[in-house]
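Case study 2.
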Amino acid sequence: MTGKAALNLALTNYNRLFIHDILQHISNKTAIRLPGALCFNLSVGNYLGIKQQLETINKLKTELKNIVTHQSGIKKEQRFEFIHQQLHGLITLNAYRKINYVESPSSINFGWANKNIVNKVTKEQILERLHKNYQSEKAMAAYTKQQWRTLIEKEIQDLNSNFS
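Prediction:
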């Protein structure tokens, strides 16, 4: 995707700070990441203005994260409830995530690391989660509701046949 379509998609995604900003068929439990880069050929004046705006936005994002995670004195386990009492429906990762920019890059690489979190779950817990996802009105972004349900049905069948 290029041009104004790419810019509009990126701007729309940057503005998705609350769960009610997300389309009904997309899960609101995850922050959406769009792989890609926006490249601009700007005058010096425009470049300096945009750079200042990005630095201000990123500073405010850092301040918000600092308020919630440190200054509030709220324990980690209580932060979700605290932030959502103040800002109902906030997607904290979208609010905290900085907008990165580089000047005159020679190359651009993408890599998002997944945190290594080990959760021990039983077959019954997984089946319960799958059934809950099946009943949900939302699907993952790349699928229609019916496609998503078909994939979940396959997972349930596989789980039941392999771990009977």
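The longest helix spans residues 44-71.
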